[in-house]
Write a structure and sequence with these properties.
2 domains; alpha+beta; 13 strands; PvuII Endonuclease, Chain A; 7-stranded mixed sheet; binds zinc ion; Arc Repressor Mutant, subunit A
């Protein structure tokens, strides 16, 4: 995997944004494999497809690329807020690639894949509407909050200039598929409880450790007044999917 982007033909583009888009997209097309099936390449959609930027000929997976210069950080700018929420709630999102690149050299620094089923509305932050004097006055964009994605769905492909082994990436993507939940509300619960599990620093923990998050979860799910049973239900789900094991009554061990 060559991390350097290719400047061939780039002189035809004048705006900085356009140049960055062309450079990053052609890098992905030339270097990136399909992290779902391992196919050696993914194809760039012709024209501006509203739904995705790339697809895999072998498994038909679709990918969208978001890139920014510098480190990826906590959030990445995206398009219209309402469109993004509609895509997530109707399960129309493709998988996402998030890329951070070095602006000076145009070399890829970080690349992360987030499988589509990890997106929940809570991950999407509404930006302030554009000012009345702007060309698209009143338009509301969004940020994708990368720090709200559980680590099981934040799959590193390149980390600080170092590509991660392809087999490791593919196996992580495949494990993450076990957490696929189509219903958006159920998905929110699963990832909120998973995030609590991730926040516990030890491998082994108890139900009481989880109940400490009751107040936090109540804030995120104000309609639900039975937080404790919900926690137990999600832990059971995580066990059934191979992410946890129950060691004894009220005791758990993390597997992944
Ligand atoms: Zn594929």
């Amino acid at each position: 995997m060559d991390l350097q982007m290719n400047f061939n033909g780039i002189d035809a583009y004048h705006s900085g944004t356009q140049r960055a888009r062309v450079l990053t997209e052609s890098w992905v097309e030339k270097n990136m494999y399909c992290p779902r099936c391992g196919n050696t390449k993914i194809i760039h959609f012709q024209n501006n497809r509203p739904v995705a930027d790339f697809y895999c000929e072998k498994c038909q997976s679709q990918y969208e690329l978001k890139s920014k210069d510098g480190v990826l950080g906590d959030r990445v700018n995206d398009g219209a807020y309402d469109t993004m929420i509609a895509r997530i709630t109707s399960n129309e999102n493709p998988d996402f690639f998030f890329m951070g690149y070095r602006k000076q050299t145009m070399a890829v620094r970080d690349l992360v894949m987030v499988p589509k089923h990890f997106f929940v509305p809570a991950m999407i932050e509404k930006r302030k509407p554009l000012s009345p004097t702007a060309r698209r006055a009143g338009w509301v964009g969004c940020n994708i909050l990368l720090n709200a994605i559980p680590r099981q769905g934040f799959i590193r492909i390149i980390e600080n200039g170092n590509p991660i082994e392809r087999d490791k990436v593919i196996s992580q993507v495949s494990q993450s598929s076990n957490l696929e939940v189509r219903n958006i509300e159920a998905r929110g619960w699963l990832f909120d409880v998973l995030e609590c599990v991730n926040l516990i620093p030890t491998l082994e923990f108890s139900l009481d450790d989880m109940y400490r998050f009751e107040a936090l979860l109540a804030v995120k799910h104000p309609q639900n007044h039975n937080i404790k049973p919900k926690i137990r239900q999600q832990l059971q789900y995580l066990r059934d999917k191979g992410f946890l094991e129950f060691t004894q009554r009220g005791k758990y061990r993390k597997i992944m």
